[in-house]
Every structure is written in C-alpha cells, then in structure tokens.
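Contributing new complexes? Match this layout with pyridoxal-5'-phosphate.
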Amino acid sequence: MSQYNAWFAAQDDPAERYPLTEVVYYSRSGGLLEVQHDMEALRQQSAAEWKQLFESRWMRTTWPYGSGVWGKKEWICPGIANENIVSTFEGGSNLYWAERFGREIGLEDLWIKMCGVSHTGSFKDLGMTVLVSVVKQMISEGKPIRAVACASTGDTSAALAAYGAAAGIPTIVFLPKGKVSTAQLVQPIAHGATVISMDGDFDACMRVVREVTADPNSGIYLANSLNSLRVEGQKTVGIEIVQQFDWDVPDWIVIPGGNLGNTFALGKGLLMMYELGLISRLPRIVCAQAENANPLYRAYKNGWSFEPITARPTAASAIQIGDPVSINRAISMLKRFDGIVEQASEQELADAAARADRTGAYACPHTGVALAATIKLIDQGVINKTDRVVVVSTAHGLKFSRFKVDYHESTLREVVSHYANPPLELPPDADAVRRVLERSIERPGASRD
Ligand SMILES: Cc1ncc(COP(=O)(O)O)c(C=O)c1O
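Output block (do not edit by hand):
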C-alpha cells in the first residue's frame, strides 16, 4: 500500500468524499467532484526530495515511471497498482525554443510546449492514461464496467480509443458530424471504437453522453473531463514546463481553451508545486479562445459573468464549444493566477499558425489561437518583450492537414492567406525551372507575382 492517498471530494463540502474507483461524477448537490490529495503525507518529503525523485525518473524506462505522468505518480493517482497502469509513455514532450518566431513577434524568450508530440497527437493522452488505468483497476476489482464513453471534438475520442484498445476495454465515442478532422475521425475507427457521428455540435454530443452514462447500472463509464481523473494527468503539463526550465517558473503560460478542463488542470498542477514548496511564485495564465467560440472571453469582459453561447464554426474545431463544462473551476483558477482571456479571429489564428510554420514550427489551429493571443498581448504591452513566455501547443499540426491545405490554397473561410505558399506547377523543362528559381530564391513567393 502506498503511504499516499487521493480521493474525489465535493467542492462545496470537502467532507463528502468518494474513492477514485467509485463510479461517481457529481456531488450530492450536483457540482463537479475534484481529486484531492493527502497533502500532509506529501509534505513529509521536502521539495528538494520531490525534485530529485522526479528527475531520477524523467524519460527513463523503469515501468511506469518514464512516462511524464506516472513519473509523478504520488501526486497523480497514488493508489493504483502498477500492473493496471495503461501508458504509452505520454508526457515528457519537447519544450521548443521558438527563437526565430519569438524574434519576429518581439520576444526573446518564447517557448512552445509541444503536447501534440504524443502517442495520439494531442495533450489528451496525459489525462486519458489516468482515466483508463483507473478503469482497468476498477474492472480488476470486479466493478461491472462494460465500456467507456466520451463526447469529443476529435482529440479526446482519439486518446480514449487508443488507451481503451491498449487495455482491451471497449470504447464508445460521440462526435459532431462533419466537425472533426479526417485524421481525428479515423483514429477511433482504426482502434475499433464504436464511433457515433451525431447531427449536432459538441455541446449536443455532451448532453447525450451525459444522459447515456447517468445511470450507474448502464455499465458505461464517462470519460469526459468533467471526470476529474483526466485533470490529474493533464495537470502535469505545468509541472513539466517548470521542470524543463530546471525548476524555474516562466512569466506567462498561454493555453487555448474550449471545454476549459485543461486551463483548470494547468493551474492545479502549478498550485500543487507551490503548496509543496517546489516553486515560490506563480506564472500568469492566459486562456486563448477563438473569437467564433468565445464564451469565456465574453465572461472575462463582463466581470466574469458567464452566459453559454452557440459556438460558430472555427478552424480551431477542437475548441468550438459554447457551454464549457469546466467554466466555474476555470474562472476560479484564472483569478488565482491573475489570469487574462484573449481571443483570436479566424484571420489572426490562421496567420499566426502560418507565420510560426515559416519559422520551423508546425502549429495546429488551436496553437494558432494561442500564438495569435500572445502577439496581441505583446502589441498591447501586457506581455513585456523580455518576459519568458510558454505557449502550450495542444495538438500536432499533422492532425489538421486540411486546415494547412486550405490556407495555402487560399480557400479558408473568413481568411485572406497572407503567407500562402502553394507549390509551383512547372513543365519538366530545366530552363523554365531555372528562371522561376532565380526569382523564388531571392524572394520566396515572388515567382507567383
Ligand atoms: C487540440 C485541442 N486544443 C485545445 C483544446 C481545449 O482543451 P479544453 O477543452 O480542456 O479547454 C482541445 C480540447 O478539446 C483540443 O483538442
């Protein structure tokens, strides 16, 4: 038995507790449950000892601690048996120094945390490893779980399907028809999930999956981020960023937000480090939203008073959400971090992604939202040019090839492609090629003038 312990607790009454292996999503008053840790037990090790332990496990092969998530097992889900852990070596993603792009936008110290460089191509792996591992533990203890289900804008379903397949646990995913990329759609199909393509938006899928899983006797376990097990894994992103800077805290962390579980998770991990003495200050957090799906931005501008909206189509399709599940806890977390919410139009997000790509990144549209928000905050003088800024890249650009193709073919909705670079179509004639190359090497893009 581990000397550490964690449990679900109701937000309005911390005495209302449930084991992490119980099928329960809401408190008696209907609020979300949070995972709480026995902080007294964790305080028995000093900050220096925790750092040393985490460093000794970082990216090594001793199962399961080489995973960026399970290397911090005592802080995440201490009670789980190692043989029930379902891991793909998630976490430990590259913290990329965006030197050229930073210089272009006026920042000396810009970094991109590449969470999309992961097994299923997004940060969702960080949370799904925890949730599916707990499900495996529950099944091993005899709980009657027949399948795990989620609503998704594309990345959660890919992660759930992969981890479920790795564990041999059936999965069911609800996707809004025509609103996820081809790569995202094919991932759960390939992993053998039951894929339900629904006529409706993400918010509609969310309503249906909540109803389907509401009866504890259904045997279908809910995997959306309102299930706080996911948050426990996702909270490692902030911890990793600090660890990768040799335990130094950046000035700003900018993160794209949709359902807002990740914004909350980022803050939760950083607060845990702060409470256990591993860091002595907190960064400021910026949540970046697409202007077409900006309920949090509207709330921020309106004294944090929230109204759900119907989100409009955005190239950042994974954050096309009008009624975020984690709205209240994300707002409290942002207040704790002196947080800011900024938005990006389709034009701004597409150009920011294209500019980053031209300096060697390969930004998904959601990362484009966060990069565009960063540019706006520099231009407004809110972020100082000497500040250390980390942008969280939430998915791999390769999952969004249609977005890239449409941009470079100048067919993206609501966007003029200022940085389009379509291929040059030329006959197989060396002279013709030489003539064009003379112009394009001097001035890339000029050959099309
Ligand atoms: C690529 C990508 N970026 C950002 C987000 C937003 O995360 P959250 O919904 O937790 O705010 C998601 C989640 O759906 C996503 O898939």
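Reviewers usually confirm one structural detail per submission. For this one: The radius of gyration is 22 Å.
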